[in-house]
Design brief:
homodimer, alpha/beta, FAD/NAD(P)-binding domain, 2 domains, six-stranded mixed beta sheet, 11 helices, 25 strands
Chain lengths: 438, 438
C-alpha cells in the first residue's frame, strides 16, 4: 500500500475523516472546528449542494451556482479542516483507512455521510427513461428534457408526437414530486406561454402518479388534500393508488394504462450509499446502516453513519426522516461524541431527533406547512417556505442571489435559468459510481 | 423530401431564414421586426451567448446563465419571428431550403450567421489537450480543468506532478488569451489563496504564448506594452515570438522547449463554419465566404453571410474584425437590404464597417482601450470596459446579475461560480458538428 495522504498536523492530533460534504458531513466538520483534531472532508464534487431547491434548477428557476457553494469556501477559515475532492471507493475498517482508487487516507474516527439516491425497486433499467433528482447533473438532465420537449414540439410536424412531447410524468408524490409538478405547470402555463409560435405551451399535460392513497403522505391528511387542490388548480392531474409498473422510451404504464410521455422524473423511493456493503454491516431494505444510540456503527465504535446513510430509531421509534435538519442534527451530534472521546469527557445522552416542521411548496402563493402545533396552507405558508429556504441557504451570497431571482420571477413570471446546458441526448451525464446495496 | 416546416404566416409573406442566434443573427432578426416578412431563426442552442464574457465563465467569475439569454425570450414580442432549436446540416441552394437532418425549412432570403471556431492550423488532434473557448460547453470544460487542477494538486503526493498541475498555458495573445491569463492569475493569487492546506495556489505558473512579436497585435504598440506590464505585475509569464509546435497530454512544446502543463487553452486562429462548403463558393483561408458589397454571396443574391461567417473587405480594404459590433452592424445591414428588396425600394449604399473602439481587460483595475482618437490604460480604461460590457449585455436581468456579481467579486476578491459542473474527465462535452472547411 502506498503512503497515506498526509493532512495538516502531520498526525499529531487524532484524525477525523468525513465522507460527504452534504448537510450531515458539513455539520460534523463545523462541530469539530475547535476540537484538537485534524479534520479531512472528502467529497467527489467541489461544492455543497442545497438539495431542497434542486427542483428549481431542474425547472429553470435557479442557476446551479445559486444553490451550490464551494466546500473549500465554506471551510476556508477552519484551520484544522482539509478538503479533498475525490471519489471514495471503499473503507478498509481493519486498517482504519478510506480508499480512493490508488490513494488512501488514515483515520482515527470516521463519519460516513454519503447520502442517498432514488431507488427503482429492482428496475434500475428505468433510470434511463425516468431520471431521479439528487445531484446537479440530475437536475440539469431534467431541465434539458423538460425545456427540450417544448423545443422539439415546436418543430414536430406530427400531432401525436407533439402530444407525447408535451406530456410530463412525475412518479412519486412526496415533497419533490409535488414541487416538480407545480413548477413544471407554472413553467408551461405562465413562463413560456408567449414564447412559441406553433405550439401552445399551456397545452402541456402534467401527471403526478402516487402509489399510495394521498399525496405528501408525511403530512396530515388535511394538508395533503389542500396541496392536491392547489395542484389541480394549476392543471396538474393527480393519479392516486396505482403504482407504475413500467417505464420505457414511450412513457409509463400504471395498472395497465399507458401514458405516453417523453419526460419522466422519478421521485419515489430511496437507496442509501453502499457504505453498509463496504463495512459488511447490517442494513435496512433501503441500504441504511442500523446505527447504535450514539450513531456509531455496530462493531466499529470509531465509525459513525449519519443522515441518509443511517437508519436511526430515534424519533418515536421511527427512523429520523431523510431531510436536511435531521442530517444536520446528526452531524452536530457525531462531532459532539468525537469531542467527548478525544477529551476523555463523559459521552452525551443518546441521539434524539427533534422535528422542527415539514414544508412543501406547490407554486406561487401555494404551500403547506406542518409545525405540529399549527398547520397552514396558502399564501402565508408559501411566504414561510420562501423565508425558511432563504434563511437556511449556506453562504451570504447565495441568499442574496436566490432572493433576487425569486423576486424577479415573482414580478415578471419569467425564469432566470432557461439555458439548456447538458447536451447528452437524454442519458445521465454523471457516472454512477455506487453499486446499489443488496 | 418531406413537407417543409411551416411557420407563422403560412407562406403569405416572403420567408427569411436566419441561421445562428449570435450577435449577427439576432440583429438581422430584430432589423426585420416591422418588415412584411416571416422570420425563422434557427440555432442549435436555446440561448444567445454574450461571447465577450465567456472567459469569465471559464474562470469561475460568472455563471452560464449570467451571459446567456433564451433566444425565445429575446424575440417573444416580435410576432413575425419563429425560433427553432435545431442543428443545421446543410443548405440546398437550388431548392432554397435549409436542411436539418430529416427536416427542412424553405426560404426566399437566407442569412448565414453561423460564427466561427478556433483553428488548430492543421492539428485538430491538439484540441483534446488544448480546448478553444467559443461555446458555453467549452467554457465549462476549461473551468473544470482549471479548478480541477488545483483540486488534483491538493491530493497529489508527487512534487513534479504537482508543479505540472499548477502550470497553466494560454496559446495566443489576442484579447481572449490576455483576458484568460489575467483571470487565471487573479483566481490563483487572490480568490483561492486561503482555501487550500497542502498547496499554495499562488505557486501557480501562468504562461501566455504568442507567436507574434507582441501581445494584443490589433492594438497600438504602446497599449500592447502597457498590457504586458500589467500581466507581468500579476505574475503572468509572457513568451513572444515563438509558435507552439506541439500540444499533448504532458503540455506544450514551443521552439524546442517543453512546458509541462495539464491545463492548456487555445486562443489562436479562427475557422469559420462550413457554410462556404455547403454552398460550394469561394472562401478565404479561414473558410470565410468572400461576400459582395451588399454582403450577399456570389451567384446567390438571396443569400447573405454576416459576422465571422464572411470576409468583407469593407474596412479600409481589410476584412471587418471578428468582434460583436461588426457582426451586429452586418446583421442590421442585411436586414436593411432584405427590406428594400421586399418593398421594391432602391438598395442601401454598400456595407461599410464603422470601428467604435477596441477594449481588452487584464484584471482588477487593469485594461486597455483604443478609440483611435484616444488611447487609455489602467483603472479608467478598466471602468470603461466594465460599463461597456454591462451596457451591451442583452437582457435587463443579465445586466443586473453581472453587475452584482462583479461588485461582489470586487469587494470580496471571491468568485461566485466556482462550481465544477462538467464531469467529462477532460474531453469536450459538446459534439463537434461542423467539419472544418478545406
Amino acid at each position: 500500500m502506498s503512503e497515506p495522504i498526509r493532512t495538516v498536523s502531520e498526525a499529531a492530533w487524532p484524525r477525523v475523516v468525513i465522507i460527504g460534504g452534504g448537510f450531515g458531513g458539513l455539520s460534523a466538520a463545523r462541530g469539530l472546528a475547535r476540537a484538537p483534531v485534524d479534520v479531512t472532508l472528502i467529497d467527489r464534487h467541489n461544492y455543497h449542494l442545497f438539495q431542497p431547491l434542486l427542483y428549481q434548477v431542474a425547472t429553470a428557476g435557479l442557476a446551479p451556482n445559486a444553490i451550490a457553494a464551494p466546500i473549500r469556501g465554506i471551510l476556508h477559515r477552519q484551520a484544522n479542516a482539509t478538503v479533498l475532492m475525490e471519489m471514495v471507493t471503499g473503507i478498509d475498517a481493519a486498517r482504519r483507512s478510506v480508499l480512493m482508487g490508488e490513494e488512501h487516507v488514515s483515520y482515527d474516527f470516521l463519519v460516513i455521510a454519503t447520502g442517498a439516491r432514488h431507488a427503482y425497486f429492482g428496475h434500475d433499467e428505468w433510470e434511463r427513461f425516468a431520471p431521479g433528482i439528487k445531484t446537479l447533473a440530475d437536475a440539469l438532465t431534467i431541465r434539458q428534457r423538460v425545456l427540450g420537449a417544448f423545443e422539439a414540439a415546436e418543430i414536430s410536424q406530427e400531432p401525436s408526437e407533439r402530444r407525447r412531447l408535451l406530456n410530463f410524468v412525475l412518479v412519486g408524490a412526496g415533497p419533490t414530486g409535488v414541487e416538480l409538478a407545480g413548477a413544471i405547470a407554472e413553467l408551461a402555463k405562465a413562463s413560456l406561454v408567449h414564447d412559441f409560435r406553433r405550439i401552445n405551451p399551456s397545452d402541456a399535460r402534467i401527471v403526478l402518479i402516487e402509489a399510495g392513497s394521498r399525496i405528501l403522505p408525511s403530512f396530515p391528511p388535511r394538508l395533503s388534500a389542500a396541496a392536491q387542490r392547489a395542484l389541480e388548480q394549476l392543471g396538474v392531474e393527480v393519479r392516486l393508488g396505482k403504482p407504475v409498473t413500467l417505464c420505457d422510451a414511450e412513457g409509463v404504464v400504471m395498472a395497465g394504462e399507458r401514458i405516453a410521455a417523453r419526460s419522466i422524473v422519478w421521485a419515489a423511493g430511496v437507496a442509501a450509499s453502499p457504505a453498509a456493503t463496504w463495512l459488511n454491516v447490517a442494513a435496512d431494505r433501503a441500504g441504511r446502516i442500523e446505527v447504535l444510540d450514539e450513531l456509531s456503527v455496530p462493531r466499529y465504535p470509531e465509525i459513525f453513519a449519519i443522515g441518509d446513510t443511517c437508519a436511526s430509531g430515534s424519533w418515536d421509534g421511527k427512523a429520523a426522516p431523510g431531510i436536511a435538519p435531521a442530517a444536520k442534527q446528526m452531524g452536530h451530534y457525531a462531532a459532539a461524541v468525537i469531542r467527548t472521546r478525544v477529551e476523555g469527557a463523559p459521552p452525551p445522552p443518546p441521539f434524539r431527533y427533534r422535528h422542527q416542521g415539514s414544508l412543501a411548496t406547490i407554486g406561487r402563493n401555494k404551500a403547506v406547512v406542518d409545525f405540529g402545533w399549527t398547520r397552514l396552507s396558502g399564501r402565508f405558508a408559501w411566504l414561510l417556505w420562501v423565508f425558511a429556504h432563504i434563511y437556511f441557504l449556506i453562504g451570504f451570497r447565495s441568499r442574496i442571489v436566490v432572493a433576487l431571482d425569486w423576486l424577479w420571477a415573482y414580478i415578471t413570471f419569467r425564469r432566470g435559468a432557461r439555458i439548456i446546458l447538458a447536451e447528452t441526448g437524454g442519458t445521465m451525464t454523471e457516472p454512477r459510481p455506487v453499486p446499489q446495496p443488496p
